[in-house]
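Entry:
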Amino acid sequence: VSLRFWGWIGWIGWIGLCCVPALGKSGKGGKGGKQLKISYRFAQLTDVHIEPFYNPENGHLKGDVCRIPEAFNKSSCIPFQVEPEAQSYPLGRLNCDPPVALLRSVMEHMSRVANEKKKGMGRPEFVIFTGDIPSHQLSCQYHQARVIELVIQMMAAGMKSVADKLYPAMGNNDYFPNYNISFEPNNDWQQYVASLYAREGVLQGPELETFAKGGFYVTSPRPGLKLLVLNTVVWSQKVLDWSGATKRHVTHHKTIADESLYKGPDAPLPGADTSGWTWDEDAVEKKAFISCDDRPRDPYDQLVWARKELEAARDAKEKVIIAGHVPPGDKVGSNNFCLQHLKDLEDLTRDFADIIEVQLYGDHSNDEFRMIWDKNEDGSAEAVSAVLVSAGVTPRKHCNPSWRLFEVSDDHELVDFTQYFLRLADTDIALKMDKKWEKLHAEGKDEQVSWKFWQKQYSFREQYGVGLDPDELEALWLQLQKNPKLLRAYLAHMFSQTVGSNDYFDYICDMRYLDASENEECSAKGALLEPPSEAISMSLRSNLQNVQNRAALDPFDHVDFADVSDTEIPRLAALITSLAVNVVLTALLLRSCLQKSRSFSNGYLAMA
């Protein structure tokens, strides 16, 4: 009797928790508490860092790159190639830049999500790609140029099934070497990258003109909305002093000069097709940077241009999204921007905070939010602009690959975003046991299977209970200082739910090999050095079955069924039956409640 009683009490509790709040919801998420109805969507992708010479067995624990040995040689520039599909870690491994298979996989998943049948919702209107195409530490400019060409081709084709328009930004690794940025407008490298986007029809007209000048442009994705894409890399403290940096000679393979890429006006830089091209692989580590005091105050006149565009947007009563690669603020203990450039961006934001809806960035490979602040007359500070930093596709910074889908209201206010991610460890284990995938992988079509392993990581509004306006983020920021559980959730999402600092198989190797050389070989291969024995004892078989049974339990289910006596089984069955009935009744009641709540004009309407 008591079990049935508590079952009915639980059902009544569900009504109180789920139905009553739904009936009483007031407007949420909008400025001034107004209703926000989702009108359209757009996606953000960032930091793909594709490794053409991908070899997961080489470099995992050394240089944060998984690359064939020949391409590791920084004094030699070998012919460009995309390595065959890897059998171990086929979509990438933690602490390394990923292969092209991961780019195919994420674009396939984006396409599937984009074309899901949602009530009243079409495909995303556009995709913002916030920069960083090639893998880190490539040996020569030739490799850098070819990877950028390859990925732009792949994205231009793949994104057509996701959205009608792709809007790219320049990342620091989209220059060669990393952060080697010329302050001269219309420099050769910027012209080259612009020509690749033009060739694929991604940028054209006025957008292409200013992108070729300095990597920035403005566009109008929808009536009433402007997208301001800035080159924030040029404001970084890490801009290389190329003329002052020591160089290293790089010998180019004799066939490179014959590549069609290096003929005509699109050649990246003079002399790039000869063995005379040199650079210093340690320039960044040696901090051979141009002093912030020795730079142009406003490279390419970008800020003057941005202010004019924002003034025009205000006059036209338009909302503005700002997008770039490097975000303002700190990255691992050092500030990203020169102080004068940071102050300029803050001033620009404060002056136009009334029309800037959000600022979107990448670079950090972490999921973060920040705010730009202003001071009130009483000396207190308040957040005036939301800065959202998305985690990237590359798992090099020990993050699972991810991408982001935004939901936007009629008047271009951000309602929410959903983060999707790929658990690399789970996927690697599952794919190894899938014969269908093995055949597709060999054919370079594994995205037909691998896309299924992408999953929803979280919805910002569902996770934190607030929207993306600056005042809501400020409230969340205050709560993160007081609520340890909330802070743990934020940090888990920051690193896309990875655990520890190593790849999952490193821990498997630690359990088996105590010898250092054997352990390192196991870790490099991502596989045991010998196959497990087929002769498994009866005792081990029994233990394996127990592990499998336990693994199938809900992780929060602490019921020890081994301790349940025979007399309790009928009572337990009665409780399970009662709970099943309650679940069905609750589902029907919730459906009715939700239908009623939607009829309230002040209700917050979220996507199903």
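The chain has a mean pLDDT of 79.
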